[in-house]
Amino acid sequence: MKKFALLLLVIIFYSHLFAQITNNIPSSTSIANTGTADSNNWTAFNNPAMLGYLEKAELGLQFENRYLISELSTKSVQLGFKSNIVNTGLSFSHFGYSLYHEMIVGMGFARNFSNKFAMGVQFNYYTAYFGASNSYRGALFPQVGLLVKLSPIFNLGFNTFNPFQTNIQTDFTIKKLPSIYSLGSEYFFSPDFAWRTQIEKEISSNYRFATGFDYRMLQHLSIKLGAYNSDYLVPCIGFGFNARTFLVDLNCELHPLLGLNALAAMKYRF
Questions:
Q1: What pLDDT, in 10s, does the model give residues 143-168?
Q2: Is 43:78 a contact under the CB 8 Å cutoff?
Q3: Over the stretch 109-142, which tens digit does the pLDDT of each residue have?
Q4: pTM for the whole thing?
Q5: Average pLDDT of the residues in 26-50
Q6: How far is CA 188 from CA 28, 37, 250, in A?
Q7: What DSSP character marks residue 4?
Q8: d(Cα 97, Cα 71) in Å, to the nearest integer?
Q9: What is the DSSP letter of 5?
Q10: How far, in Å, CA of 37 to CA of 253, rounded?
Q11: Which of 66, 114, 127, 211 is paired with 136 by a 20 to 30 Å CA distance?
Q12: Which of 166, 162, 168 is nearest to 181 (CA)?
């Protein structure tokens, strides 16, 4: 048990060192985690401005496994509501296992302003379980997003998660929560072919650069290719199935040091 716990701590350390999006924040279903400017996709705890582009209410479920270790899995659920004034979203994420886990609950609001730009804000409550004291500690912080449509084929997005660097204070230590700033772009070569890029910075980590292509080959099937670089170059591949009311995404990335990350997501649009 001690050897397993030590191995787990090492893996978590390296994953936080080499990946800007930490384990406890669900990855975007956009390939290579380029969801900051993805106007066709709202993913929990990514850019909340995308919530403003919902045309119907939707329910989403997502499961992400890192390095083929079940204890490093993230489960999330999201529910979005459409209205004439402002769209509303509810999100929940769980990372870890019984001896150590972290959870995030979010409530977001966003609006699309005449299809020229969209703004969104989300209030997140982040809580972690501390085995030493057998207790939960949490903190509340905002998340702000923006998407600007500079032309019919080019979009620019911005997102900040925990902008004021809020942390969790315990009796023995301070748990630092990730504070991330992201800037992304989206360019459409055609309605079926999109190219996205993203640069982001977690305050205590290096810059992360990512790019990805999303091409719809058939009426309901699309293929996604991309890569990101944060000390290591990580290739990514994914597939999407869109049946209008039912959507499925399967993404994989291969870290040269840590191994395989896999993501599966399903959405139902009412």
A1: 999 999 999 999 999 999 999 998 88
A2: yes
A3: 999 998 899 999 999 999 988 766 677 888 999 9
A4: 0.85
A5: 92
A6: 19, 12, 22
A7: H
A8: 5
A9: H
A10: 20
A11: 66
A12: 162
Residue 213: CB partners within 8 Å, gap ≥ 6? 31, 193, 194, 195, 196, 224, 225, 226
pLDDT in tens, 222-242: 999 999 997 889 999 999 999
What count of Cα atoms within 13 Å lies in the side-chain half-sphere of residue 217?
A: 10
DSSP annotation of 178 reads P
Helix spans in the chain (H): 2-18
The H or E element spanning position 154 is strand 154-161
**Contact status, residue 217 vs residue 228, Cβ threshold 8 Å:** no
| Residues, the chain | 270
Please give the span between the terminal C-alpha atoms of the chain, in angstroms, as a whole number: 46
Residue with tokens 């997140």: 124
For residues 155 and 49, give the distance between their C-alpha atoms in angstroms, rounded to a whole number.
12
Mean pLDDT of the chain: 87
Contact 240, 232 (CB under 8 A): no
CB atoms inside a 10 Å sphere around CB 172? 8
Q: Tell me how many domains the chain contains.
A: 1
CB 128 within 8 A of CB 161: no
Q: Please name the residue that has the structure tokens 């080959």.
A: 217
Distance CA 10, CA 109 (A): 37
The CATH number of whichever domain residue 246 belongs to comes to 2.40.160.60
**What is the number of other CB atoms lying within 10 angstroms of the CB of residue 55?**
9
